[in-house]
Amino acid sequence: MTDIHQEHITANQVAGRDIDNSTTINHATIINVINQPLKRLIKKFREESENGITTQENDSFLCFFQSEVDAIGLQKKLERANMGAKLQRAMASKEYFIKELNKKKFYKTGQELYATLLHKIYHGFNQNIKPLIENEEPASVIDSAESTLINNLALELGDDLDIIKPCEFDGMLYFLTGKCHIKWDKD
After folding, report:
1. Disulfide engineering: 174 pairs with which of 90, 102, 145, 168, CB 3.0-4.6 Å?
2. SS3 content of the chain, % helix, strand, coil (to 5)
């Protein structure tokens, strides 16, 4: 026969048999709280584009990401990192992103939105993918981390994927690679 001890049970833990002290984290709620500024930017962008409110000014944060750190080029950077197999997809997605950026750059909020997303990719790469590269993890692990970064951004946008398409995130990643803000080889 098993002895039953109840000295650690408090008033809010009365149970016939099992007590569940686990914690549930609602990731959807966390994403919604974190992305309120992103949602506000998208809402404001919609208003600007529907009303034709454009600007001739350039967002300085977006200009930072558009500046080239070196002139090696995307192809050489991917080849140097033994990622030549990704070149065709990288070039196509980068070009698609540039076309979309060129459409939205005349809207102040469009610039802010892209600057914010580019920063999220830049930061996500440096926090989650670059350490894997430095530790010489297998390509499959790095590819998985890349997919997670892109998928998380798509989740953040939720219903707003009509404004920014998921393939643009790939394009942003390789746009930043081409400008040498992101480096896929070991330093």
Report:
1. 90
2. 65, 0, 35
d(CA 177, CA 39): 26
Please state the φ and ψ torsions of residue 129, each to the nearest 5 degrees.
Answer: -105, -45
Structure tokens at 72: 């090696």
Helices 139-157 and 108-124 cross at an angle (nearest 10°) of: 150
C-alpha R_g of the chain: 22
SS3 state of residue 185: coil
Directed axis angle between helix 139-157 and helix 166-178, to 10°? 130
Across the range 130-139, mean pLDDT stands at: 95
Is pLDDT of 84 > 50? yes
What confidence tier does 36 reach under pLDDT thresholds 50, 70, 90? low
Tokens read off for 2: 């098993």
DSSP 8-state assignment for residue 64 = H
Longest dimension (CA), the chain: 81
Residues 35-71 as b/e (b if ≥16 CB within 10 A, e otherwise) read beebeebbebbeebbeeeeeeeeebeebeebbeeeee
